Amino acid sequence: MSDIRVKICGLREPGHVAAAVEAGARYVGFVFFPKSPRNVDVATAAALAAEVPPGVAKVALVVNADDALLDEITARVPLDMLQLHGGETPERVAEIRSRYGLPVMKAVGIAEAADLARIDDYAGVADQILVDAKPPKEAELPGGNGLAFDWRLLQGRHWTVPWMLAGGLTPENVALAAKLTGARQVDVSSGVESAPGEKDAERIAAFLKAAL
């Protein structure tokens, strides 16, 4: 078994949380973004998170969330990490990290080599970086669009904080993606679904098997 750590994001049902854990996921993600087909309310997320065993990190994904929403989420859901997937500035990332005392992962969208510079902007304030495909300008979702970027852009790159590869990963391509980028952590959402927002336990298992 390799030491690649897998995050299954956008979970909404107990059976799929169990499938992710049983297959070996090291992170499970809950989406708090009403426009997403993977959106969950706070009560649902709290119930799902309560079933996650120790050793598997529980992550809340938010998009440009205000303090009121973050206050509610962090008060009611037992979390290990916050994932910021909007246009949060480095200053806002640092503010959230300080206010809530939780590790913060900041998503950075990549489409071309010039976008990589933005990773350095956040590496000093975030605990981890999620290197994702930049969404199309007309996209309503900042992630979970099933898009990949040119993984060769990441070859030979090193940053001062841990990073995770996302964007268009599937059971069929995750091994190649990890090989090309050197990623030790990978994140998947739409790539293990049978329809938008509908996780598939068999594809979750297949993804973990291919990644590990």
Please describe the structure with a list of short key phrases separated by commas or semicolons.
212 residues; alpha/beta; TIM Barrel; 8-stranded parallel β-sheet; two-stranded antiparallel ribbon; globular
Quaternary state of this entry equals single chain
- Please compute the radius of gyration using only Cα atoms: 16 Å
Q: Work out the number of β strands.
A: 10
| Average pLDDT reading | 93
Q: Quote the distance from N terminus to C terminus.
A: 6 Å
Widest beta sheet: strand line-up:
7-6-5-4-3-2-1-8
CATH class reads Alpha Beta
Q: Give the overall shape.
A: globular
Approximately what portion of the residues adopt beta-strand conformation?
A: 15-25%
> Could you say what the CATH architecture is?
Alpha-Beta Barrel
Can you identify the CATH superfamily?
Answer: Aldolase class I
CATH topology term: TIM Barrel
Structural class: alpha/beta
Tally of helical segments: 7
Largest sheet: 8 strands, parallel
Order of helices and strands: EHEHEHEHEHEEHEEEH
Layout of helices and strands, plus pairs?
Blueprint: E1 5-8, H1 14-23, E2 27-32, H2 42-49, E3 57-62, H3 67-76, E4 81-84, H4 90-100, E5 104-110, H5 117-123, E6 128-133, E7 163-165, H6 174-181, E8 185-188, E9 193-195, E10 198-199, H7 201-211
Parallel strand pairs: 1-2, 1-8, 2-3, 3-4, 4-5, 5-6, 6-7
Antiparallel strand pairs: 9-10
Helix pairs in contact: 1-7
